[in-house]
């Protein structure tokens, strides 16, 4: 059996005002090609299908056309979707009665029977060629505080984080019930959260990889997932990466949703399940549109003259439709009034088959302009971090960088 794990499509996302609809349509068609070429039996979508809780009609059409296309090209495909923190859970589940007839299963909310988790409603069997189940999927949607059993913030509850302990109890109960149903067969769990130790990113416009906060917690330890889960297919973080000795995996987002994701090798994860066990590999999928940066990452801002020269050296296709033209991020040196520089740069960009994702003017400090060192009594570690970040990246740190620094300080 071959299983494809994907997540974080963010259908409906815009970048600096540009729609990504054409890119999503193209990427989803490329995904269909992978399903056919790699002979995929099951596709798992681990949340953040949409970019917002009120997806447009076109975003919904893009999704359902893609699901239909996947089934047309791979008729025996089983599709399993869960919700992410960006998704409208109820709206995602609403078409379930129709979708289930097509072997498309949607679990966007925690199912309960009274006060107890109804684990059976989260379990989807994966049948082999003879129709008998060869593995099970335990579909866990994005969890909110109300989903966590026995969550209490009382001061005398214990030493550990109440969020972590409640999340651990939830997953233990889910794993116990899943194992009772699956017996000795492998269990693939789906989740949408941030695990400690995983690398995060964020969109420069709108924070596409929004931090999940429940009671002040945004990340959970890997051990909240019991060993009963043979593989944990996660969504939420956009960099493809593996944790837990290979058992826990983020497939990553479909294509760069911000400048921070330019260097990621986007794609999907393919899981092979046979008598030898379970193995997974990353399978890249080409970006529908390039994402460029001038100057190159790591270099300081460039003069307007150099920018014009480098812009003319780009190998661009003038015949591409606007909706698939490359995005470009530009950082200019403040050699004059910022408003004048921005206006001149915009004029140059308007003549090129490009979409502007970000255009900034930065001042380059000289040795003489650098302020004298300040006493530690007159600054803070966070301000020192901000200054060091600007020096290294020629841009202000974003909210997720500051949050990561604060987390590191707490753990130090």
> What's the CATH superfamily of the largest domain, by name?
Metallo-dependent phosphatases
| Content of β-strand | 15-25%
Order of helices and strands: EEEHEHEHHEEEEEHEEEEEEEHEHEHH
Helix % is 25-40%
Cα distance, first to last residue? 44 Å
> Which regions are unreliable across 5 or more consecutive residues at pLDDT < 50?
202-207
The 3D shape can be described as: globular
Strand order of the largest sheet: 6-5-4-1-15-16
DSSP strand tally: 19
- What is the name of the CATH class of the largest domain? Alpha Beta
Q: How many domains, in number, for the residues?
A: 2
Radius of gyration based on Cα positions: 23 Å
Q: Do you know the CATH architecture of the largest domain?
A: 4-Layer Sandwich
CATH fold descriptor of the largest domain: Purple Acid Phosphatase, chain A, domain 2
Largest sheet: 6 strands, mixed
Count of alpha/pi helices: 9
Q: Can you tell me about this structure?
A:
The chain is of the alpha/beta class. The chain has two domains: 2-284, Purple Acid Phosphatase, chain A, domain 2, CATH 3.60.21; 291-411, no CATH class. The protein contains nine helices and 19 strands. The protein has helices at residues 21-37, 57-73, 89-93, 96-99, 162-182, 304-313, 338-350, 381-393, 399-411, and strands at 2-6, 14-15, 18-19, 42-46, 78-82, 104-107, 112-113, 116-117, 123-127, 133-139, 187-192, 231-235, 241-243, 248-250, 267-274, 277-284, 291-294, 327-333, 355-362. The strands form five sheets. A six-stranded mixed sheet has the order 6-5-4-1-15-16, with no helix packed on it. β7 and β8 (116-117) form a beta hairpin. The longest helix has 21 residues, at 162-182. It is globular. Residues 202-207 have low confidence and may be disordered.
